[in-house]
Design goal:
CATH class of the largest domain: Alpha Beta
Distance between the termini: 46 Å
Strand order of the largest sheet: 12-11-1-2-10-14-13
Oligomer: single chain
Structural class: alpha+beta
Number of helices: 8
Helix content: 10-25%
CATH topology of the largest domain: Barnase, Chain D
Order of helices and strands: EEEHEEEEEEEHEEEEHHEHHEHEEHE
CATH superfamily of the largest domain: Barstar-like
Length: 396
């Protein structure tokens, strides 16, 4: 099914979104459920988590975490996001994961009756990652701590317990999604009186540009709380859906989507005025060229304009524009760049890449590291990947 087939209707405002049913088993083709003029409430920045005080009890003194916190010269205070992984000592029981956001070290002291361990007091926003469901706490739990600010690819320490972790927390308020000016199809009309879709139904919201090209797709929990005549009149309806969770486009994505509605970019650096969240949204909308063995062309010299490469999405966007043109990318990560350089799209090594203003990225990304290259900065890892695939990189 193509969005271009469904954008024509005799009204003064465009079709910006399609509601599309997709078979989760991919055995049947997608089906149009309805067309909508607008959606309100889709973009959302989750509210900050309330700050809480926790105690990491009994951290071994020899661990990287404890050494970083207790060292006399410049002890680590701002730890960023910390992950707590709780698993059974014998690795046979269930595992639970907790995120401590924007963790700050408040104080530390020797663990009572154990001079080889340290208690670390921290402030953080606390959230359990319950993607796999609320697993029970193991009988003999082990608490493992991960902090990318200290070490990217391995745990930085452990502790005997985390005081303040297992306490009830108020449920965060939800935000409904409003489908404005909907023209329902037969299936949607039949479903409007039901509380939710069947288990095998997958409803996606397709965001279209003015030509009908699909810019993005977003999965909806289609739990209708209200359906009423539309404020736009005619025979249209407005539908309110219950909160669909935190996994939504950020508020910074809204102006990016509006820009792309008028068509894919045709000039370089149109992403540059946006901050990092907006650039990430721009990267999500960017397209990857035809991919596969024998598709790419090699040779030639390409110029990367590095004057706006001040963050990771900026590097990926500038690289995609240099090799493929505005609105294109080699993917949303260095792993994707690594993969596509080996088989497409469009431009594959050997070729020459002249990176102008390279020192801007070198300095801006000096503290950003990559899991697979913990000894290199993000900038250095990008250059290494290019060179490893046979690209001649000239830094200017």
């Amino acid at each position: 099914m193509r969005g271009e087939e469904h954008i024509a209707w005799k009204r003064d405002f465009p079709v910006r979104h399609l509601l599309v049913w997709e078979d989760v088993h991919e055995e049947e083709p997608s089906k149009l459920w309805g067309r909508c003029a607008e959606v309100e409430g889709l973009f959302m920045d989750p509210p900050p988590l309330p700050r809480e005080i926790l105690t990491l009890r009994g951290c071994p003194r020899e661990s990287l975490l404890a050494q970083a916190v207790v060292r006399p010269a410049e002890p680590v205070r701002l730890m960023g996001d910390v992950n707590v992984t709780i698993y059974a000592e014998d690795h046979q029981g269930p595992t639970r994961f907790w995120d401590l956001e924007d963790t700050v070290v408040l104080a530390h002291q020797p663990t009572p009756a154990d001079s080889e361990r340290v208690d670390i007091f921290v402030g953080a926003g606390v959230r359990e990652d319950a993607y796999w469901g609320p697993n029970p706490l193991p009988d003999c739990p082990r608490f493992e701590l991960w902090a990318e600010a200290l070490l990217a690819a391995d745990p930085v320490g452990s502790c005997l317990a985390v005081d303040g972790l297992f306490v009830p927390r108020p449920q965060r308020p939800g935000q409904s999604v409003h489908l404005i000016g909907c023209e329902p199809g037969e299936a949607l009309s039949a479903r409007l009186g039901r509380p939710r879709t069947q288990d095998d139904d997958l409803i996606r919201l397709w965001a279209l540009d003015h030509t009908g090209r699909t810019m993005a797709k977003y999965e909806l929990e289609f739990r209708i709380t209200e359906a009423r005549p539309s404020v736009l009149g005619d025979t249209l309806i407005d539908i309110t859906l219950a909160d669909t969770g935190d996994d939504r486009p950020a508020m910074a994505a809204r102006p990016v989507w509006d820009r792309w509605f008028h068509g894919a970019p045709t000039k370089p650096n149109q992403w540059a005025p946006f901050g990092t969240p907006g650039r990430s949204a721009w990267l999500d909308l960017s397209r990857i060229g035809p991919y596969g063995p024998g598709i790419g062309r090699s040779g030639g010299t390409y110029h990367l304009d590095g004057q706006h490469v001040t963050d990771k999405p900026g590097l990926l966007l500038a690289l995609g524009e240099a090799l493929l043109g505005p609105g294109f990318t080699y993917g949303g990560s260095l792993d994707s760049v690594d993969d596509h350089l080996g088989g497409g799209p469009c431009v594959v090594p050997p070729f020459t890449l002249i990176w102008h203003h390279a020192d801007i990225a070198r300095h801006a990304l000096a503290r950003h590291i990559v899991d697979h290259h913990p000894d290199r900065s993000y900038f250095e890892a990008a250059v290494h990947i290019l060179q490893e695939h046979g690209v001649t990189v000239v830094l200017q």
